Amino acid sequence: MEIPQVRVLKRPYGPELRVHQVRNPPFYVKSLASLAQKVGQAAHKKRGFAQTHIIDHWPDIMGPELAKISVPERYRRGRGNGPSTLQIRVKSGRALEVQHASKQIMERINSYYGFAAVDRLQLIQGPIPIPAKRRSLRPTRLTPAAEKCVESLANGAEDARLKRALTELGRQVKLRSASTR
């Protein structure tokens, strides 16, 4: 490993910043989230989204009602100063509702970004992806009958610590088996 070099960064405000720079940094473990984000960005760039921001924050931009029936599909930036188009996939039968609100939708998107990001909307009717259902949480307590069953199984232990450990283990097993049914 090489000796780090110090580089001084001059900032317009505040003190100078000293940065230690290593030419060949050692191998660092990368988080799975950062790798998944890179893969996702490549897929979104194919669809014209330079950033995934509009997709991630679609319910915040549109509001809960319109976000349930629509999803951004593709963004095309106009050449030069040409109009930018956002394609939105809308649930079948709800396109008319979204078309009537198209000016408000464009205003919401443009005000969210702070500039005229979208000049036109193009609506595509079709099924939208169903968001994954959240798994229900496991029950935190056992029924009284199950609690008695667990305690009766642990009664054979003479040591108090062992009895407590067996009781807790029995509770966890019962809770886990109750949540998978």
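Above is the first protein from milestone M3; the second protein from the same milestone is given next.
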Amino acid sequence: MAFSEAKKDKTNKHVEACLEASRDGGSNPPASSLRSMLIGERRLPRRSGVSCEAGQQNETLILHRTTTRQAKILKFYYVYILHSIADAGRYYVGMTSDLQTRLKMHNTGKCTHTAKYRPWQVETAIAFRCKDKAVAFEKYLKSHSGRAFAKKHF
């Protein structure tokens, strides 16, 4: 008898938490966050292997979601994938803080590694506020598993 009462009490708390979340105007949170709300525990965010300096935030921003004015105000580090127009099978991964200038350098032949297969176009560009995270992501994309990831997702 006590077991069924405890189960009903727990179910009622779950329903109350769902109703409270829906009153806020948002969607219902997933069950794991409901569980943590009911128990009262605090969950810590996942840690990344790369840490940023105190003044930098750990957020990433996709390039197409920002305007040029915002990009000039904020300091971003771009990890980009170039695709050769002349040789369809050629890709190049790099990092820069000024994407348009860097693309011009690749297309004018000032970069020895990409001069042979120009012209290039930007296939994908991801902006990071933290330089350390950008360097780590570029290094990952240049690894074997990173190339497989880029081929599948980009």
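Note on the second protein: The chain has two domains: 2-39, 60-153.
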